[in-house]
Amino acid sequence: MTWSGSLSWGVADTVPEVGPGEEVVDAATVARLEPGLRQPPEWAVWAPGDGAADPLGLTERLVEGARAYGARVHADTPVVAVRRDATGRVAGVETGAGPLTAATVVLAAGVATAALAAPLGVQVPVDPSPATLFRLRAPAGLVRTVVHNRDFDLRQVAPDRLHAAADSAEHTLTAVRSTFRGAADVELLGSGIGARPMPADGEPIIGPVAAVPGLYLAVMHAAVTLAPIIGRLVAQELVDGVAEPALADCRLDRF
């Protein structure tokens, strides 16, 4: 995790209302935070508490932590269906390697959540939201913060590497080169497209499903950002059997 703070500008035509931990800063401050900018904007939203995480590395650390606490991890074992007993209660899952028994199944399958829930008669309003991530070779220190504007979401992930979430490779390269000094030699190393889960109203869907005892949903768009706190709250609900007030607005029955 890199706690670099984030700068956002040019997304709206007027100065937005800032949220907790954010402030509007002037061009001089922007230039100090991102000295490589050719033309610092007149204003930007600065969030000093923001950071960036490597999703793969974060997932690996969470899995390692789960193993350390006794969890059994079945890697590369696709779940093909949720199993139920004769009473309709969840009894586990069917996988490519055979059945696994469980009294509770937390369905946190991203874009596959809706398809796995549908045979149970549960409609989960989640659709895929494609996102393209470009990997760029760039000079060390070109980008100091997480930068967000109309052209890209950009961050430095290694001394000579940038990650950019944007729409097209050509536009991204042109935008990065024109936005930062010393970026003329920035080059594209590769790209990938991810299908992010997007609930119908954009908000997380978390909680037990009354119609299918033993089934618990956990699907959201900002999964990497919310994973630590959502994981803790879900665990508390399942272990203690007490509804968490913080999740009250996240239930499936709001649809």
Automatic annotation (TrEMBL):
GO terms for cellular component: cytoplasm
Entry's transmembrane regions: none
Entry GO MF terms: oxidoreductase activity
Domain FAD dependent oxidoreductase: 19-236
InterPro entries: FAD-dep_OxRdtase, FAD/NAD-bd_sf
Family matches, as Pfam families: DAO (PF01266)
Keyword Oxidoreductase among record annotations: yes
UniProt key word Chloroplast: no
Keywords: Oxidoreductase
PANTHER family per UniProt: GLYCINE OXIDASE (PTHR13847:SF289), SARCOSINE DEHYDROGENASE-RELATED (PTHR13847)
Protein's UniProt name: FAD dependent oxidoreductase domain-containing protein
